[in-house]
Design a protein that fits this description.
Layout lengths: L3 H11 L4 E6 L6 H13 L4 E4 L9 H11 L4 E3 L13 E7 L5 H18 L3 E8 L7 H6 L9 H13 L4 E5 L10 H10 L4 E4 L5 H10 L3 E4 L1 H5 L3 H10 L6
Parallel strand pairs: 1-2, 1-8, 2-3, 3-4, 4-5, 5-6, 6-7, 7-8
The chain binds SN-glycerol-1-phosphate.
């Protein structure tokens, strides 16, 4: 296993540099759209391109990864919805366990199915505790995962869950309100988790403005993930990226 991507995440965290990941939905992206996204992503110094989804119906996952890899050097990280979302061309895969839920298939079942192929491909895997937080509406991931999200007003549960993930040896915590969430995760919950947990923290779901991204980064997120908002206005990445990268200069 190589550890290039994880090392870059750790290095940024140590240096208090906030990072931004752009979530690319393979179902929604034709080649023209991907090319436009890449142009904005390069200009905005996006750190990672996350690719995946809780339900992909168009059969374009492989094509999407291959197009991204042929067009840009921005690292492509798989954010898988299931064990079918694996590709040898990616730079890494978030090896997720849905630790906020009690669905054994997403705690360990899918991982057992995926592990041999990941090993065969020599793909860098980043053991990640995935925590679904209530964002005020039922998102695709909530429905597809058949799990109950952690209530938005229960930071103690989020802290305990993230701590358990750390104690189990996971290397990252991804707290997600789900794509298209009405509300992003509160700064209060993020700060409580980041005070208690030493791991890099990835935050996504419902982040729509540069000001939100900045508040979330200040609260303790190490990587901000944005999908929907960028699909509507690709130029927003630059604003968001500037807002969070600015923090290292003006904490
Ligand atoms: C979802 O965290 C990602 O898993 C991004 O969410 O599409 O709402 O930005 P959005």
């Amino acid at each position: 296993m190589t550890t290039d991507i994880y090392q870059s995440i750790l290095k940024a965290k140590t240096n208090k540099v906030k990072q931004i990941a752009l979530l690319v939905d393979p179902d929604k992206s034709d080649e023209m759209y991907i090319n436009k996204l890449i142009a904005f992503a390069l200009e905005s110094k996006v750190d990672y391109l996350f690719v995946g989804g809780s339900l992909l119906t168009e059969g374009k996952f492989e094509e999407c990864i291959e197009t991204l890899k042929s067009q840009t050097k921005i690292p492509v990280v798989i954010f898988p919805g299931n064990n079918l979302q694996i590709h040898p061309f990616a730079d890494a895969i978030l090896f997720l366990s849905l630790i906020s839920g009690r669905n054994p298939d997403l705690l360990i079942g899918q991982q057992v199915k995926a592990a041999p192929l990941i090993k065969q491909y020599g793909l860098e895997y980043i053991p990640t505790g995935y925590m679904l937080i209530d964002g005020g509406n039922i998102t695709s991931v909530q429905y597809m995962s058949n799990t109950t999200p952690i209530p938005a007003n229960k930071p103690d549960i989020a802290v305990a869950t993230a701590l358990a993930g750390q104690m189990l040896g996971l290397k990252c915590i991804y707290m997600d309100a789900g794509s298209g969430a009405n509300n992003h995760i509160s700064e209060h919950m993020i700060s409580k988790v980041s005070e208690q947990v030493d791991l890099p923290i990835i935050i996504g779901g419902g982040i729509r403005t540069a000001a939100d991204a900045q508040k979330i980064a200040k609260a303790g997120a190490d990587i901000i993930v944005v999908g929907n908002a960028i699909e509507k206005n690709a130029e927003l990445i630059l604003e968001m990226s500037l807002a969070i990268k600015d923090l290292v200069l003006k904490p």
